[in-house]
Amino acid sequence: MLKSSVKTTTLIVASSILALSSFACSSNDNDTANLTDATIASPVASPTPAASPTPKPQPQASPSPEPTASTDSNTYGHAMDIATGAITIGKSAVSRDDWSLVASQWQQAINLLKSIPASDSNYATAQEKLPLYQRFMAEAKTKAAPPPEKPKEGDTEPDYFSVPIKKRQGQIPVIDVAFNGKQKFEMLFDTGASSTLVTSSIAATLGLKAIEVRAVGIADGSIVALPIALLESIEIDGRLKRKVKVAVAPPAMPIGLLGQDFYVGYDVTIKENIIEFRRR
User: Fold this and answer.
1) What share of the chain is helix, strand, coil (3-state, %, to 5)?
2) Rounded to an integer, what distance in angstroms lies between the CA atom of residue 233 and that of residue 246?
3) What pLDDT, on a 0 to 100 scale, did the predictor assign at position 58?
4) DSSP line for 63-127
């Protein structure tokens, strides 16, 4: 009976030890599994490679500047500005001082154009403009020059003479003109008119007879047939005593007009109070 009890007790103790051992083993396995799982779930991060130092920019040799063609475009533009100024001043020039300034402006423009080198893109244009500018300067210098000596009495075609302007009509000068050595009449001096016209009243006073009929352009642009008469002489201030054919204007025309056919061979400068004539 005692033996059976001892055996039973021993068996129970053994079973307990076995169960404990089994529990321990199971715990160790679970811990191992948990450790393994943790290791797999959270892998050890590999060390971050150290950042390579930013390479310092190596100084690069500046490229040699490409040679550029020599240019004086500013010089050309400056010359054009001065030439424009000369034209502007010339449009309103009256006195000799005005024309002297115009001549000076042209001279400056010419000097600038001459300084432009052959390598400049404007060189050819500058060379083309030079003769024109030189002519403009010469004309301005002529108008700026003091008048020559007064022509001798009786010299009807001197190198230079001037006539006074009595008044202006629509900005056009009015001067006295003598016909056939008899009588003076006021006439418009219009450099844009090619032919001389007299009024019907002048023709009647002088007893002019028509020698032909000619189609003539008048101020309003129309063409009209007008009688043509011959004047034995037309003169201004005793100068340019010439025989000229004149057209007789319609009665509606109140004042005659002295045309270019009267002062052929002369250059004319209209100033504030006088008109100057210079032989070409």
Assistant:
1) 40, 25, 35
2) 11
3) 55
4) PPPPP-----HHHHHHHHHHHHHHHHHHHH--SHHHHHHHHHHHHHHHHHHHTS-TTSTTHHHHH
What is the dihedral angle through the alpha carbons of 146, 166, 205, 258, rounded to the nearest 10 degrees? 50
How far is residue 1's CA from residue 83's CA, in Å, rounded to a whole number?
150
Sign of CA dihedral 71, 75, 79, 80: positive
Length of the chain: 280
Whole-angstrom distance, CA of residue 40 vs CA of residue 204: 136
Task: Confirm if 74 and 115 have CB atoms less than 8 A apart.
Answer: no
Place of tokens 């007879």: 209
H/E run at residue 201: helix 200-206
Residue in this structure with the two tokens 């010419």, named with its chain if needed: 110
> Alpha-carbon torsion 156, 161, 165, 168, what sign?
positive
- The predicted-structure confidence for 233-247, as pLDDT tens digits, reads as follows 888 888 887 888 999
* DSSP 8-state code for residue 12: H
Residues 183-228: tens digit of each pLDDT? 899 999 988 888 899 999 999 999 999 999 988 766 566 788 899 9
